Amino acid sequence: MRPMGAAGRVWAHVGQPFSERGYGAVVLGAGRMGAACAFFLRRLAPELRLLLVERGGLPNEEGATVLAPGVWTALNVSPERRAEAAWTRAQTEREFGDVSWQARPLLELLTREAAGAVPTPSLLPRFPELAHLVDPEALPFAQVDEGAATYRPGAVALACGQRAVRAGADLLLNTHAHLTPGGVRLDRLTVTNTHEVVTHESREVLAGVVIVAMGADGPPGAEHGLGLHTGHGRAYRQAPRLNTPSGEATPVLRVDGLTLRPQHGGFTLIPPIHHRDPHGYTPIGGRLTGVPVGIRRETLEDLVERMGVLPPLGTEALEVGRSLADIPGAWLALPDGDPTAPPRHEEVAPGLHLLLGGPHADTLGLAVAYDLAAKVAGVEERPWEG
Amino acid sequence: MRPMGAAGRVWAHVGQPFSERGYGAVVLGAGRMGAACAFFLRRLAPELRLLLVERGGLPNEEGATVLAPGVWTALNVSPERRAEAAWTRAQTEREFGDVSWQARPLLELLTREAAGAVPTPSLLPRFPELAHLVDPEALPFAQVDEGAATYRPGAVALACGQRAVRAGADLLLNTHAHLTPGGVRLDRLTVTNTHEVVTHESREVLAGVVIVAMGADGPPGAEHGLGLHTGHGRAYRQAPRLNTPSGEATPVLRVDGLTLRPQHGGFTLIPPIHHRDPHGYTPIGGRLTGVPVGIRRETLEDLVERMGVLPPLGTEALEVGRSLADIPGAWLALPDGDPTAPPRHEEVAPGLHLLLGGPHADTLGLAVAYDLAAKVAGVEERPWEG
After folding, report:
1. Which pLDDT score, from 0 to 100, does residue B4 have?
2. Transmembrane stretches, by residue range (chains A, B) (predicted)?
3. For residue B275, which residues of chain A lie inside 8 Å, CB to CB?
4. Domain boundary among A327, A343, A368
């Protein structure tokens, strides 16, 4: 036994022998949801021996966390979840060091008047970039979320993972986890000198609680490992780049579900998710007037549809790539197969919890990770209540 | 020139030399939509030299026509399309010989009361099969379409193709067509003695009008051939079998979008289409409690969801197969990517028409094929009007 208050151990590669046989809780996946849940578990249940397992490094670089838009906005949050959203905002801004937090309004541009909307031309003096981005005659109204902000979800995941370890969580990297009845099988991965990723050794570890936070891979992992069925879905989302100038004061724009997120001096485009992708789908690039490009066809169509109201989409400022690998993309979990569903957790078998971020993790993810940690710890209070 | 009134020629295999260089109109695809359009074109524009091209035999055996549910119903037809639906019904019943026409009511079973609905138990004396199929407490109400009928769309396509040829259309089978500016390139296919399908010869044919009636392959064909972009989609639909007895008097049932179509002494299940499948999707089977089955996952979920209200779905009466090949399935065109859209035609370039059947071709397909033929022929009148 280690002394209370000591940092956890980290196994980064197979040269470090791992011989643990059991934990109170194991969290699978060190993306934003898993790393945050591990961090909150150390705070709320310090007596629980905790292992965080990640297939790659910290934070996970292949899932939705690193490619998440990093846009916090209260637009589209239902009234009963607003306290959680506000808590997630405050935590993200203040508690995890430098996460590139940047308060900036989000403008939802509309084709017709709506409650609380202002005329788009009235925003031009404040946001001069709008003149080059938007046709104000086609989008004459705008709803403004003054409390919106952008940040880096990957930085949140990294900070949560590091703090969890500092607070005593063990961390096992480069390890592929499979669910078994009562625990997990851990395949520690290594790379051969022919660059093949292979399993170096497998360990069975028992755990009273297993939290599956593997993003879009979580529900299939639970299903294949334990023969369960879940109603969750997934979608492959690409985030193409639009090279039109942006700065610190540039707002986030949203047009009919398409988000333009100022980033690296231009914009990252976050397309809408209309529905899940079918089981077995492998993303491929589309064609633009016959020429192969790296953006999947469904996303291309969404961009082409909006060219009229967002003229830069019809120019070379849009990076379309030549193959799928040119356009960053990641699989996203869709809780209940529903692109509008907030993040959630679900106990799919006794002691086995699925933790899903999905499209709205930027706004609500931390609160849902906290909620699961508190539930596992037997803590009734939630910091956003009362 | 052949004499007016003579039958057209048929090229079934590459041993029959094909040396035509031009037609007034070429119809690509001898499924239900293409064959019907060719037939109506011969009636409405007998002076137009016409070629019907099919990749396989007559009728097409790989597309949606042969697997179509063959259910005519006025439920869900919008008021402005009802005359076309009635005309399609009358034509199908009377004009194409034996198409296995069977008038039988369609019962849409509901969880709650709706306009015109009757209590499900009141239907039990008339439809005793219901007692074994449905939980009347879970589905206490039903809307009845007394005018519904079942038939074989493949038989309609065959009759239309044969009559088109008898009325003078030429027919080229086993030929893969590609669009070219001003016409088509025709790759005549043959099978080698190692069972490989290869192109025996290619012919360029000029045509004033080209009608692309290749089902789900139509829009991609037009796009690849001519660099166009269309907003149409497609979906892969499987029709699993439910081996629960049915007879001539058994009604068609519909439960939350799932249709149970009495056929061959049991039922063919026609699952709902929720949305299009993404570009590049290759269908694969799913898993039922961990075991691979031939039904795609999305359809499995639809069936599992309805097991409570349709108890036979939870028994061995449902054929789930062991791989995709065990469960009949076909790609369906979705006009405008919308599963609720009626059949339609669209002139995507001068003289180039897309003709799409889609999920509602059973009820409206013939009228839309007629409408396109009349448009090409310059005929103003429609038989279902005034």
Report:
1. 63
2. none
3. 274-275
4. A327
| Percentage of chain A exceeding pLDDT 70 | 99
Q: What pTM was estimated for this model as a whole?
A: 0.90
| CB proximity B128 to A under 8 Å | no
DSSP state of B121: G
Asked whether the beta carbons of B348 and B230 are under 8 A apart, the reply is: yes
Percent over 90 (pLDDT), chain B: 89
Cβ–Cβ gap A301/B224 under 8 Å: no
> Could you give the ipTM of this predicted complex?
0.85
Residues of A with CB below 8 A from B287's CB?
223-224
Distance CA A185, CA B202 (A): 57
How far is A288 from chain B, CA to nearest CA, in Å? 8
User: Which chain A positions have a beta carbon within 8 Å of B229's beta carbon?
Assistant: 288-289, 304
CB–CB contact A289 B231 (8 Å): no
Contact A290 B224 (CB under 8 A): yes
Q: What integer pLDDT is reported at residue A118 of this predicted model? A: 96
Size of interface A-B (CB pairs under 8 A): 61
The pLDDT of residue B328 is above 60:
yes
- Whether residue B124 is contained in a domain is answered as yes
Beta carbons of A284 and B287 less than 8 Å apart: no
Residue in B179, B229, B238 to test binding to A, most A beta-carbons within 10 Å? B229
Q: Do B281 and A280 touch (CB under 8 A)?
A: yes
Indicate if B208 and B281 belong to the same structural domain.
Answer: no
Q: Are residues B92 and B199 in the same domain?
A: yes
pLDDT (tens digit, 9 = 90+) per residue, A230-289?
A: 889 999 999 999 999 999 999 999 999 999 999 999 999 999 999 999 999 999 999 887
The domain total for chain B is: 2
Query: Could you tell me which chain A residue has the CA closest to the CA of B295?
Result: A279
Tell the burial category of B232 from Cβ atoms under 10 Å away from its Cβ (0-12, 13-18, 19+). buried
Q: Determine the Cα angle at B58 with ends B57 and B61, to 5°.
A: 65
How deeply is B193 buried, as exposed, middle or buried, from its count of CB atoms within 10 A (0-12, 13-18, 19+)? exposed
Contact (CB<8Å) B231/A290: no
CATH number of the structural domain spanning residue A377: 3.50.50.60
What gap in Å lies between CA A89 and CA B337, rounded to an integer? Answer: 38
Give the three-state DSSP class for B189.
strand
pLDDT band at residue A2 using 50, 70 and 90 as cut-offs: low
Q: Looking at chain B, list the stretches that DSSP marks H as alpha helix, in order from N- to C-terminal side.
A: 32-44, 64-67, 82-94, 130-133, 153-166, 218-226, 297-305, 361-377
Q: Is the peptide bond before A339 cis (omega within 30 degrees of 0)?
A: no
